Amino acid sequence: xxxxxxxxxxxxxxxxxxxxxxxxxxxxxxxxxxxxxxxxxxxxxxxxxxxxxxxxxxxxxxxxxxxxxxxxxxxxxxxx
Length: 80
Description:
Blueprint: H1 3-7, H2 16-25, E1 42-46, E2 61-65, H3 66-72
Antiparallel strand pairs: 1-2
């Protein structure tokens, strides 16, 4: 198990107020595929992956649907 997995707290790794603010900033839309609404389960994704030194600052977090987030994995957003 990696250190990141050891520290994982589900959705609690970022405060709910911050999560909602990022969703609002990104118009509740996945930045990768453009989907939104009830058919799109949203999550937060790191622009620079956490295991590559990316932090949990709002400037390093974007709204992504669960499918796009999982597909991208540890790739940089610039390489995806």
